[in-house]
Design brief:
Elements: H1 5-19, E1 25-33, H2 53-71, E2 81-82, E3 99-101, E4 106-108, H3 128-142, E5 149-150, E6 155-156, H4 158-166, H5 170-176, H6 178-203, E7 209-211, E8 217-219, E9 222-227, H7 236-242, H8 244-251, E10 256-262, H9 269-272, E11 278-284, H10 292-298, E12 307-311, H11 314-319, H12 321-324, E13 328-335, H13 338-351
Helix pairs in contact: 2-3, 3-6, 4-6, 6-8
């Protein structure tokens, strides 16, 4: 990627965007074009991991390159980048335990059935899940030939790892076993840093920063994406005690962090936004909930110091221009075809100039 001028231009524009004191500016990433259908992969539960690791990565890479060959550079702010992906289990299974694959993803079974199981958690470089991520990143780097960047896989936040290894008993444990939960949260905080530091060491830097697992470039010694999905299921008081201190401890060691949140967790987004090192926050829309842009508008004051990432339709961009013209936003766009993608880019570039 060192010779990819499009990547360099995008990163330079992204850096100016972060540094600008202006509002009413936006970046746009066309993350999907429905008319481009790359080759299909076998279902996740049809692979034999870790034995099929490199065969799977070859197939994933072929699919990725096929898509980008047809998509090309549209003038938006998305850098062609790829990472190893095996579902969601790799975000927590690297601490130990069993994994189950379905057709589309993977799930990590709880490890701590009772608190005597705490000793089953460990951070080992020979764990097959951390090896698949790190060896996969290295393999993709070796095959890149300047055609793409390799990005971080990202990580669960400390509370999300705790939820994965304890299961939903965690939400009772907050009340019945607070000391044990705090001990678990300390371990999970160390675990998040451990996986991200290993990923960052493997991938290295790209023009003075990193591409997070959700395709957002951040400058300097930065991390992302982090997920706080478990926060959707607990009150702000519980999150302030068992979530905030640990995520704050984690991100305080870095220049910047990218955080993934959900519309379902609106009640805790203001608490998460209190952490100053979390500079970029994505709000995902959820079924039967207001769209992410509506959550953004409702929490305008609480998010005023953040760059907010939202998925918008073409009509939503038009309908919310007055609001967006007072913000710094990264817009994710899903296009029906190439013409639709170019139309959306033209709209954002003309109305939310940067």
């Amino acid at each position: 990627m060192q010779n990819n001028t499009n990547a360099q231009e995008i990163i330079e524009r992204t850096n100016r965007f972060y540094e600008s004191s202006d509002t009413g500016i936006a970046l746009i990433q066309v993350r999907n074009i429905q008319s481009i259908q790359p080759p299909k992969l076998k279902a996740m539960n049809e692979w034999d991991f870790p034995n099929d690791l490199y065969e799977y990565l070859d197939a994933r890479l072929e699919r990725f390159l096929s898509y980008w060959d047809k998509r090309g550079y549209l003038g938006d702010d998305l850098i062609p980048s790829i990472h190893p992906w095996f579902g969601i289990a790799e975000h927590s299974a690297f601490v130990g335990g069993e994994v189950e694959f379905t057709k589309e993803t993977s799930y990590h079974h709880p490890v701590i059935k009772d608190w005597d199981d705490f000793g089953k958690l460990e951070l080992r470089e020979d764990n097959p899940w951390i090896r698949m991520v790190l060896d996969g990143q290295q393999y993709l780097l070796e095959r890149s030939e300047g055609r793409y960047a390799v990005k971080l896989r990202g990580a669960d936040g400390p509370m999300d790892i705790a939820n994965a290894v304890r299961g939903n008993e965690l939400f009772v444990d907050f009340y019945e076993y607070p000391d044990e939960v705090h001990r678990l949260m300390e371990f999970c905080t160390d675990a998040v840093k451990w996986t991200l530091e290993h990923q960052k060491k493997t991938v290295g830097q790209l023009y003075g920063g990193v591409i997070t697992g959700f395709d957002i470039w951040l400058p300097g010694n930065s991390i992302g994406q982090l997920s706080e999905d478990a926060s959707t299921m607990c009150s702000p008081d519980i999150y302030r005690e068992f979530g905030l201190p640990y995520t704050q401890k984690l991100v305080s060691e870095y220049d910047h962090a990218f955080m993934h949140t959900h519309a379902l967790g609106k009640h805790n987004i203001p608490v998460i936004a209190e952490m100053d090192k979390i500079n970029v926050m994505e709000i995902s829309s959820d079924p039967n909930r207001p769209r992410a842009i509506e959550i953004y508008k409702d929490l305008e004051k609480e998010l005023e110091d953040k760059v907010v990432v939202v998925q918008l339709t073409y009509d939503e961009i038009i309908e919310n221009l007055d609001f967006l013209k007072n913000k710094k936003t990264i817009i994710w766009y899903s296009a029906t075809d190439m013409d639709d993608a170019k139309r959306a880019i033209k709209l954002v570039r003309s109305e939310l100039k940067f």
